[in-house]
Amino acid sequence: MYPSHRIVHRDPTSLPFEIDPSTGWLKTRTQLDREASDSFSFGVEASDGGRPPLKASTAVTVDVLDTNDNDPSFRRKEFRVTVSELEPPGATVLKIRAYDGDKGGTLR
After folding, report:
1. Which residue, 18, 103, 17, is CA-closest to 68?
2. Among positive and negative, which fits the CA dihedral 10, 38, 24, 57?
3. pTM, full prediction
4. Which of 37, 60, 68, 72 is least crowded, fewest Cβ atoms below 10 Å from its Cβ?
């Protein structure tokens, strides 16, 4: 007889995972987004259904890896600057910074 598996969490339906009770395969239930949550922690319990029933539990942490799923953006739609014709070559005219919503994504 194979053990039956279940997720142990204060609100298992809030997790983007489900576990197959008979095989123990942990699967995603919804799309993951690292920018929304970069890790999930919960427990898994297995019980053998014997008499008396015996149980075991373990802690599970799932870390979500980031993918390049956000377009870079600028804080402004348009930049306008005036420059003197007397500025020498190599003079700084404007610093433009783009931002990327992906983890660690500030472009320079």
Report:
1. 103
2. negative
3. 0.69
4. 68
